[in-house]
Amino acid sequence: MAYSFNPSRLTPWGQRFFNGANGIWQTSKQATIYG
User: Fold this and answer.
1) Are 18 and 7 in contact (CB under 8 A)?
2) Threshold 0.85, pTM exceeds
3) Separation CA 1–CA 34 (nearest Å)
4) Disulfide engineering: 10 pairs with which of 4, 14, 25, 34, CB 3.0-4.6 Å?
5) What DSSP assignment string belongs to 1-35?
6) Residue 10 contacts residue 1 (beta carbons within 8 Å)
7) For residues 8 and 30, what is the distance between their CA atoms, to the nearest angstrom?
């Protein structure tokens, strides 16, 4: 998902997984236990 374990250097698959239309950033919600 990232190059050399660097979260600021996502692979193309990492970009899609996290930033894509149905990715983590678009679909996730913070757990109520954390805030």
Assistant:
1) no
2) no
3) 25
4) 14
5) -BGGG-TTSB-HHHHHHHHSTTSHHHH----GGG-
6) yes
7) 21
